[in-house]
Specification:
With 287 residues, the chain is of the alpha+beta class. It is built from 11 helices and 6 strands.
Length: 287
């Protein structure tokens, strides 16, 4: 999944960059390169492949082609930096990657003489990108819980998921474990949140409207601190709910805003209310 996602992000980003350059939209061109390099490649792809890249020649090929593509599209913006990187990169040899075409450079092998990357549109895969975005959101949610409870970075925890996430997690074996510091994924979310004795203290959190849990965050979880955290989150969500409800109750907004934006706002409000109901239930209050 992670390699298909990276290739899809490369292809869609290069297509957008080409369009930006054709329309003289250089700020959008620079922003697209920045997000591709920093957010997709550095923040997520490099971290995701650490456990597997040493033993996978195919993944090393995707890695090399991804970096070379990014260096080429970055060159007009940062020519001296990319030319220095190119001196190290141009000698790397890997297997070809289908759909990625990178011509060789001329005149002493300088990057400024290398061709612009050509990526086939068949690499763009919206379904894979959507699945990876869900995994990225899940990993971020787990990291936030770890941060809230000051879990040491090296501590490996247990993630209690539900069956709705099984196929998604199994599409990318080891990804959640590696990037969220998880030792084991257990598909027993409903039981885990009500059974603190099974495998250590549990901390529940909401993802996509469902209640999931983490355990083994510490030798013990302070109940009063957990209730305080939940109360603060409820207050935050109640403010968000009031703001969104006021906006959607305004006939002028519903009439003038694009239908897609209204639908997205309604979906966000429903998600906020689902999380509020779950959190209130944990505190024993009205759901």
């Amino acid at each position: 999944l992670v390699d298909r996602w990276m290739l899809s992000r490369l292809a869609s980003s290069v297509a957008k960059i080409d369009a930006c350059i054709a329309n003289y939209e250089y700020s959008d061109y620079a922003e697209t390169v920045y997000r591709l390099l920093w957010w997709d490649f550095c923040d997520w792809y490099l971290e995701a492949i650490k456990p597997t890249v040493d033993t996978s020649p195919a993944q090393r090929a995707v890695l090399a082609h991804s970096l070379e593509t990014i260096v080429r599209v970055l060159h007009p913006i940062a020519p001296f930096i990319t030319e220095a990187i190119w001196e190290q990169l141009k000698g790397v040899e890997t297997a070809p990657v289908s759909g990625v075409h990178l011509s060789t450079s001329r005149k002493g092998g300088l990057l400024c003489t290398a061709g612009w990357p050509q990526l086939e549109s068949s690499l763009i895969d919206p379904d894979t990108e959507a699945d990876f975005e869900r995994l990225r959101a899940l990993i971020t949610a787990i990291r936030e819980v770890r941060s809230q409870h000051q879990v040491p970075p090296k501590r490996r925890i247990t993630f209690h998921a539900n069956d709705n996430l099984r196929s998604l997690i199994e599409r990318a074996p080891g990804l959640v474990e590696s990037l969220a510091g998880v030792e084991t994924v257990v598909f027993d979310a409903a039981r885990s949140t009500s059974d603190p004795a099974s495998g250590g203290s549990h901390v529940a959190f909401t993802f996509e409207g469902s209640e999931l849990a983490l355990s083994n965050l510490a030798d013990a979880v302070d109940a009063s601190a957990e209730n305080e955290r939940i109360s603060k989150r409820i207050a935050e969500l109640e403010r968000t709910e009031a703001t969104m409800d006021k906006r959607l109750s305004n006939p002028g907004y519903v009439a003038k805003a694009p239908p897609k934006l209204v639908e997205e706002s309604q979906a966000q409000l429903a998600q906020v209310r689902d999380e509020l109901a779950s959190l209130r239930n944990r505190l024993g209050g009205p759901g």
